[in-house]
Amino acid sequence: MKKITKILSLLLAAVMALTMSISVTALADGEESYTITIKNETSGYVYSAYQIFDGDLSGSGTNSDPYILSNIVWGSGVDDESTVGSGDDAKTLIQAINAITISETTPFADCKDAAGVAEVLASCSDDSEVVQKFADVVSLYLSTAAATSSYSTEDSNYTITVTDPGYYLVKNTTVTSDGAYTRFILEVTGDAEVEPKSDVPSVTKKVYEEDYTGTDYGTGYNDVADYDIGDEVPFELIGSLPENLSDYETYKYIFHDTLSTGLTFNDDVVVKVVTGTTETTVASSNYSVKTADLTGDCTFEVQFTDILSLTDSEGNSISVTSSSKIYVYYTATLNSNVAIGLDGNTNKVTLEYSNNPNEGGSSDTGTTPEDIVIVFTYELDVTKVDGEDSTVTLEGAEFVLYKTVTSTDGEGNETATKYYVQVDSNNKVTGWTTNENAASTLTSDDSGNFSVIGLDDGAYYLEETKAPTGYNLLDDPIKLVIAATTDNGQSWSGKASDALTALTISVDDGDAENGDTSNGTVDLTVENNSGATLPSTGGMGTKIFYTLGGILVVCAGILLIVKRRMRNA
């Protein structure tokens, strides 16, 4: 027993259950209460302390005279007589501890009482699986809490006051929706101060924007993007894991993603685990993508029953630690229900996660705050007018709109390819084609107007293919550049007007003209000049003909006289 008590004096380092770092201040002589301070600035938790081991405390807490807990028995916070479970699985506390199996070994098999259990724990490191399993089991046999916490807004921490020394399991029994239950065992032989490690994961969402070159979340990924209708828009979800992940036997992990009506999920999810510089693709059999029977406005879920048991496509186990991150990649297509300009097309995600290691992780869950990204698209409004009188609008002009895409072959040679817009009956973009014959004909109506709805920002060319009756066809395509000023960064406020702050159009490399961010429109006026009027029969044209004929006759006579004189000379 003497050996046990000496070892237990060091149990502070040995039995700490992975979620806290602890410092202990020695008790002054004569004090009869002990304060456990939990340094957690987040309010809304209720921590309860359960005495696991009790005993006789001696020593002064100095290096030469350390505290020693002798005559160890079960504490007031555990029920060592009742059974947990049913039928053949019903066990008392010591029977459940005896049955703990780790890698086909039973470290507590010979233990008959609290002192024996304490001796096994004292020989373990603070992050050992033995300590974790013990905490799992003893959490099921808790009885009466010695005390619960109070929160100080002034100090931004929690305190628990207990009246007996010993070894306590402290766990939070009430959490916020985005919090997690924790548990830890610590030696209380004086005032103790504990600082929680992160016990909840976080989630981040990003959208790919080809003009953004930052690398924080992978090149091109940020909070804001703009696209054409019909484009497949790439998204990524990034989930972290809690520092106390090893407290859990299993860890439920579910991404809840919500698309606006202007985005259509393409059901092409790919999942990767990134730990340090190692990136591993997760076999699709490890998760399910659910698109039906969802709650709220959720569009789809990516569900992991246990994030701790992932495998790759070859069936090899993937090591997932608290420093790992879970990446989910997918695309959504910008569709005809898209919002033009503000308020944009939002996409948000929350992460549901296990938050109760006391029950192994398979039951209670919490949910992170949502993270949002936004996608924009724009509208080109064109008005066809008379070049001499802009108040006169022209019906029946026909155009095609195209953009050029430059590609490079293996030898560095560049090729520019024209892609012609295709639109539906409502002038919304449906796609692009390299076949000019398959391009949509954009025709000015009786007010001289036509639109192309659902354009990305960038350079386009508007080519007239048929002029209105009586007007000349434009010689060259009109170059127009739609430019959007967007918050292509990582700290968007979540407010649409902060994401899209300006929209302009410039024509044939001229000065930029402001568009309207609220409805996402830019305006273009195209002028046509009328053709030359042909002369009527018997009019000036005939007189000119007669005059020219007379001049030619005179010239012929003069030439004849000159020749005769030269002949007679």
Number of helices: 7
Give the end-to-end Cα distance, rounded to a whole number of Å: 156 Å
Spans where pLDDT lies below 50 across 5 or more residues: 1-30, 533-546
Outline the biggest β-sheet: 8 strands, antiparallel
Give helix % range. 10-25%
| Inertia-based shape | elongated
Topology summary:
Layout lengths: L1 H7 L2 H5 L4 E7 L7 E5 L7 E13 L9 E7 L18 H6 L15 H9 L6 H11 L7 E2 L1 E3 L4 E6 L3 E9 L8 E6 L1 E7 L6 E6 L12 E2 L1 E3 L5 E8 L13 E7 L3 E3 L4 E6 L2 E4 L6 E3 L9 E5 L20 E10 L10 E10 L10 E3 L3 E6 L1 E9 L11 E11 L5 E10 L5 E5 L8 E2 L5 E7 L2 E9 L11 E9 L9 H4 E8 L5 E2 L6 E8 L11 H29 L1
Structure, explained:
With 569 residues, the chain is mainly beta. The strands form six sheets. Strands 26, 27, 28, 29, 31, 32, 33 and 34 form an eight-stranded antiparallel sheet that branches. Strands 11, 12, 14, 16, 17, 18 and 21 form a seven-stranded antiparallel sheet that branches. The longest helix is centred in the C-terminal third of the chain and has 29 residues, at 540-568. The N and C termini lie far apart (156 Å). The model is unreliable at 1-30 and 533-546 (pLDDT under 50).
